[in-house]
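Give me the fold.
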Amino acid sequence: MSKPVSNKTSRQAANLVRLWLKQKPFMHWLVREGLVNYTALAKRLEEEGFASGKRPVAALRAALLRSRHLDLGECNPFGHNKVLKDSTFEIRSGITVVQSAKALSIPIISVSSSKNGIISLVDPDETEHIPKSAKVVAEDLALITIYSDERMETESGVLATLLLHLALQNVNVVEMTSSGPDTLLVVLPRVFAIALI
């Protein structure tokens, strides 16, 4: 039989969890929807010093479970996102991701650069023209292009909503880039096709 948690430890944990979740509406949504491992989250909070006394993990876990019914303000990452609703989407297949030291001299869909080199997204019709000096990182991928207006750059949470939807469908974004309000996401086509079904 497990030892009971003292009332003082229980109250302290409940107050700390409530304050923590109030500052993190998305975490409260995850807790409320049952999308977290409550014991693992309680252990993490305990490691960060969120509770003391006897059996703090048990007290934090109980506080997290009770917090599912708290009204801490509404957070709905699946809410009506007007920016995405007003956007248009295009999906292309057969995309190749190429890494090179300098810009490619072939037609490309998109390019991004960093101190480690240049990443280019190449259409399937142009793959035979990729120079031997360039490294093919991945082939036969799907490209999702989201054409939005300027609100994509000014309204917070739009891209987070989109990426959350994909993540919950087990779709991993391999590459991501943007050009103004347009966003390009490169994903594995097989997984993406399953997510669409």
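Residues 99 and 135 are 5 Å apart (CA to CA).
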